[in-house]
Amino acid sequence: MKFLLYLGALTATLPSVLGSEDTSRKAIPACPPRPATPEEQERIFHAFTNEFYVQKNIPEAFDNYVWIDYIQHNPSIGQGRDAAVAALSKNPKVNNTIVHQTFTNNTGFVHHYEFTTPPIKIMDAYRMNGSCIVEHWDVIASLTLAEIDPTPLSS
Ligand SMILES: *[C@@H]1O[C@H](CO)[C@@H](O)[C@H](O)[C@H]1NC(C)=O
Ligand SMILES: *[C@@H]1O[C@H](CO)[C@@H](O)[C@H](O)[C@H]1NC(C)=O
Ligand SMILES: *[C@@H]1O[C@H](CO)[C@@H](O)[C@H](O)[C@H]1NC(C)=O
């Protein structure tokens, strides 16, 4: 068990150090929480957002950085990591733009536009326990209604 915990902790930080290719990671359990400094948390969080929102490697992003039993507050997605991967994988290669992202006090925020039909804007919030993402909230709205979004699509 200690060996597995160590491997999980190691793979949580490896991709941001070595780049995104690690052929062994699918065989390794999802990250278990371990203590991490705020700087380390922020680095891990941005490795997750890069893997998920930019590279769009959905299973890899979640297997590496999200706890298997993570708490989901989006009512249209079931609890846990695998339900999120299943839901998100239905439309994996939509064009998108990250407008803002930040990390503070164990919580990361990503404000992004997804150019689905119709396009939507989303604010995702993720809580980390040490090294590992353990909880998610989101706010989703139409990007097209002039009444609620009178500005053009620039950030
Ligand atoms: C994403 O944008 C690129 C470049 O504008 C375009 O070629 C591609 O078809 C778009 N993909 C989707 C899924 O909309
Ligand atoms: C940090 O977040 C916790 C909840 O996770 C909250 O209780 C606390 O007040 C927050 N601290 C700051 C400085 O915002
Ligand atoms: C973080 O994870 C550890 C190990 O699973 C657990 O004991 C602890 O209660 C968790 N803390 C928070 C704030 O979620």
From TrEMBL:
The keyword Signal applies. Gene3D superfamilies: 3.10.450.50. InterPro entries: NTF2-like_dom_sf. Keywords: Signal. It comes from the Eukaryota. Residues 1-19 form the signal peptide. This is SnoaL-like domain-containing protein.
